[in-house]
Amino acid sequence: MTDYAKFRTLPLPCIVVPQVNEGARNQALKSIGAGLATSSEVASYLRISGRSLPMLLAEGKLKCNRAGRFAWADIWRDLWQIPDVPPSQYGRMKASLLTTVEVAQRAGVSDRSILRDGKRKTSLYGLPRHLQLSTRLRRYHPAMIFLWETGESLEDWMRPVRTKSTQRRGLRVVNGALKPP
Scanning 27, 126, 145, 158, which has its CA 20 to 30 A from the CA of 111? Predict the structure, then answer.
């Protein structure tokens, strides 16, 4: 009998995959975090061109590590002021942002109306906060727009929390956007 034939006659070990409860899974995901994104993934998330991303880096709105990767948790904390995203919401938060044209189509108004409404102190349409990435780039989060469309209020974890990192850099939040003082 050859070695291969002996090997084939050996019984297969019983592989048991342990069941992990949801609490342990969430704790593990929280310690791992949402992961890292490449510059192309961040550009796709923000719906901007690759040429606009270095501009955001130069303004200090985004930070990357030495390998050129961006932590999703840092993006959500620095841009949206959401310090703790629940692990079950990572996929929802990674969805590409909506442009003013897409929000206008969903609201049934022109995109100029959405732009004007974002400049007002109190919104006529009651739109959720947005990101003002530059004078011409405004983005809305699809999860927040969905809650707005259904008439629901923002979930507690989605509410902005002013963090020390934004205070330390001297930036202030104006209508959901980070602005220099």
Answer: 158
